[in-house]
Amino acid sequence: MATVQPESERLTYRLLDETDGEFLWELDQCEAVMRFINGGRKTSRKETNDIFIPRMLSYRNAPAGWGLWQASLKNGDKTALGWILVRPHGFFTEQRDDSVIELGWRFKRDWWGKGYATEAARAVMTYMQTLGAYSFSAIALPENTASIHIMEKLGMTFSHTEHYQDQVFNDDIVVYHTDATKP
């Protein structure tokens, strides 16, 4: 029996694991991609291997749908465009809430502005609903208007501003939230 996964018109999805370091590192080599993550600094291979992958694995839970879902083109050469993050809201903070699923996204610069991040996030959100998740959030720096626009397209509305601090991030963010309709 095949494993159910997110589905969408133009993209396929695969849950990333510890063998995906090259893709994760490559994605973080664009200063524009990293602008609202760490001010535009490219991630080193050591940071990818020693920090990013262990963090991803700490919340990765395939049966629950948690982790990073790689989004790739369905047709042609199956190019990997980016990923959608799925984990409990505030996973690395003292305010972790497993009842609210945090969505996030990071896509290669060449694929911005084509609707892929929205399509992928919507597909993953719909998939998470089949697993019983109905409350979703997303966070961004207030000046990251592109990500905020995606949140709004997903039906999320502004919830509040807060100071977010974990092992690698320390800044004021905006939190958007939505509750999906239960069947």
What would the average pLDDT be, to the nearest integer?
93
Largest sheet: 7 strands, mixed
State which percent range the strand residues make up: 25-35%
Secondary structure tally: strands: 7
Question: Given the helix and strand composition, which structural class is it?
Answer: alpha+beta
Shape: globular
Lateral arrangement of strands in the main beta sheet? 1-2-3-4-5-7-6
Helix content: 25-40%
Oligomer class: single chain
User: CA-to-CA gap between the ends?
Assistant: 25 Å
Poorly predicted tracts of residues: none
Order of helices and strands: EHHHEEEHEHEE
Which radius of gyration do the C-alpha atoms yield? 15 Å
Briefly, what is this?
The protein is of the alpha+beta class. Helix content is 30%, strand content 32%.
